[in-house]
Design goal:
Layout: H1 2-47, H2 55-63, E1 66-73, E2 84-88, E3 93-97, E4 101-105, H3 112-144, H4 151-183, E5 191-194, H5 201-230
Antiparallel strand pairs: 1-4, 1-5, 2-3
Helix pairs in contact: 1-2, 1-3, 3-4, 4-5
Length: about 230
């Protein structure tokens, strides 16, 4: 029984770890890209202030403004559906299409307050996710030691659930701030930017399941304590 539980726990741990690694990777790429763009620009200006930017610098400059956006049509009239088109390399023809997600690079003035808020939200989300993983590992270790129905495990599960819910809320808030800033400088005819699909519901589901399991453990412990008192 413990073997099956450990396998399931390893799968959950890998999924949670992948989410943290993915978030950390994109944060590192963004920071590295911005640093590289600033370094190359400063170096070029020092050597020749009148020289035009190189193609590599232009690409780096575009990457630092890259955003992943989710779209849905402004209207649901049939005449506006599939109003766009994409090139089909197999047939050499354009086929009707409707956008749902895009990667866009839109230069914009960065607000220092928004940058600071985004950085803090990202760090808080990363910290909450790592802490939730640590609590999950502690819970698995306790279960393997046959230390299962205890108040320590109840508290671990409750804290893990709260942290996962907080991580989901921070993700939603971060995506909202990004979308709000992007709406000021970018619009696509026939579409509007949306948060639908930008936040994974799996983290929310894991958090709720953790809280449910914690309450089940707590009910069982209270019933056990009441039975011990009546004996």
């Amino acid at each position: 029984m413990k073997r099956r539980l450990n396998i399931l726990c390893i799968i959950v741990l890998l999924l949670m770890g992948w989410s943290v690694l993915e978030m950390g990777y994109y944060m590192a790429v963004s920071a590295t890209t911005g640093f590289k763009a600033g370094w190359e620009y400063a170096k070029q200006q020092a050597e020749d202030p009148q020289a035009p930017p190189t193609p590599e610098m232009e690409v780096i400059g575009q990457l630092q403004y890259m955003e992943h956006v989710h779209l849905h049509p402004r209207t649901f009239d049939m005449e506006h559906w599939l109003a766009d088109s994409v090139y089909n390399a197999k047939t050499g023809q354009y086929v009707p299409a409707m956008y749902a997600e895009l990667m866009v690079s839109v230069p914009r003035e960065e607000d220092s307050a928004m940058q600071t808020a985004g950085l803090l939200l990202g760090l808080l989300k990363l910290a909450a996710s790592i802490w939730a993983i640590v609590l999950f590992i502690r819970w698995v270790v306790a279960v393997n030691r046959s230390d299962i129905f205890t108040w320590h495990n109840v508290r671990r599960l409750r804290r893990m659930g709260v942290l996962l819910l907080a991580s989901c809320a921070l993700t939603w808030l971060l995506e909202y701030l990004t979308m709000h800033a992007l709406r000021q400088v970018f619009a696509l005819p026939g579409y509007e930017l949306t948060l639908a699909g930008s936040v994974s519901l799996s983290v929310l589901l894991l958090g709720l399941c953790s809280l449910i399991v914690a309450e089940v453990f707590a009910i069982g412990l209270r019933m056990k304590e009441e039975q011990d008192l009546t004996i």
